[in-house]
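If your schedule permits, I should be very grateful for your opinion on a structural question. I would ask you to consider whether the tokens describe a fold that such a sequence might reasonably adopt. Thank you for your consideration; the sequence and its tokens are set out here.
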Amino acid sequence: MRGAPHPLAPAGPRSASHRGGGKSESARLEFMARALAALEDLASRLDVRTIGLLAEPVSGYGVLLSALEQPVAVEALRREDPLAGARLRGLRVREEMLEAEGGVFTGSEMAQLLRISRQAVDKRRRAGRLLAVELGRRRWLYPAWQVVDGHALAGIEETLAALREWPAWTKMAFFLSGDSRLGGDSPLAALRRGRVEEAVRAARAFGEHGAA
């Protein structure tokens, strides 16, 4: 029922006791209650057909993001945050990059692929020899396309070195996007074709001047 307290919302006295005994738990419960109330409100605005389409087999986060991209949801979000549309587009772009070219691996999975220890994977990441993006607290995900037949893709380390000043998400976008300096090919495609020097030059130019 819109406007009424959500059934999972902590009651007043209990909430106060939680704040005294564990602020993090109280904050978590409050977040869950508000998030669930918002989802309940969103579900009431969507028609049955749309809900059925959104519930097709994808990740839970994918379902949530798709729901938030519906016009009725975007309009509701914009009333509270004028930049909501831009934020959602940014999230969608990131999700697409994470799913592109084989998806991503955890540090442990990357260690198995490269036949090295998890610590060695972390060391390569910190040295800028492997690309990883951070999702959540100290949770690193590694693009699968960096590894071919148990070895790092030829030229990946040199290309990453040329991009060392850029944030991880920008580096990922560089590898996956078409580049005019490569005749419209993505740097990843260029590396796969053995055009290492060209990809490295494109990365250096990107590092100096930004995207073309």
Summary: The beta strands are 104-106, 133-134, 140-143, 147-148, 151-152. The chain is about 60% helix and 5% strand.
